[in-house]
Amino acid sequence: MKRVIIILLAVMAISVSTYAQKYAFVDTEYILENIPAYQAAQEQLDQLSVQYQKELETVQAELEQMYNDFRAEAVLLSDDMKRKREDVIVSKEKEYRELQQKYFGREGDLFKKRQGLVKPIQDDIYNAIKDLASEGNYAVIFDKAGGLTMLYTDPRYNLSDQVLEKLGYNN
């Protein structure tokens, strides 16, 4: 009977140890803030965004001026001339929306530029995290910056500096 109990306890200990998992977390915001290439990419994207926004504001100002002129002159215009002016305004509104979509839409220029500049950095971070997970036998690595609510985090399990080191950045 003692022997059965010892064997049973040994089996339970082995099964519990195989289910014990290691967890860690990283702070990708912190990691990205410490990568100069990311900072440069962000600055470039911000400048491009400002440029696009100025261009859109110019078109919008033209559109508003056209509309104000039309309202002021509408009483003097024939029906045919009104329709032509309305068509021009509608065409300009369409141009504005298309330009807005071209720059800031889901597949717009700014999105594509962000993909080209930031995605390779994010991929490097992901690969470094994946390597650390494999090397450290971590079952899960959480991202503290990703909106995941962590009420308490033990700094011993923060791998952010190790990710930066793996990427070749000293901090």
Outline the structure in words.
The structure is a single chain. Helices cover 72% and strands 6% of the residues. By secondary structure, it is mainly alpha-helical. The longest helix is centred in the N-terminal third of the chain and has 38 residues, at 36-73. The relative contact order is 0.17. The model is unreliable at 8-18 (pLDDT under 50).
Give the termini distance in whole angstroms.
Answer: 59 Å
Given helix and strand content, the structural type is mainly alpha
Strand order of the largest sheet: 1-2
The global form is rod-shaped
* Total strand segments: 2
Main sheet characteristics: 2 strands, parallel
Helix content: over 70%
| Proportion of beta-strand residues | 5-15%
Mean pLDDT, nearest integer? Answer: 85
Number of helices: 6
Rounded to the nearest angstrom, the radius of gyration is: 29 Å
Order of helices and strands: HEHHHHEH
Low-confidence stretches: 8-18
Task: Annotate the secondary structure layout.
Layout: H1 2-19, E1 22-26, H2 28-33, H3 36-73, H4 79-104, H5 109-136, E2 138-143, H6 160-166
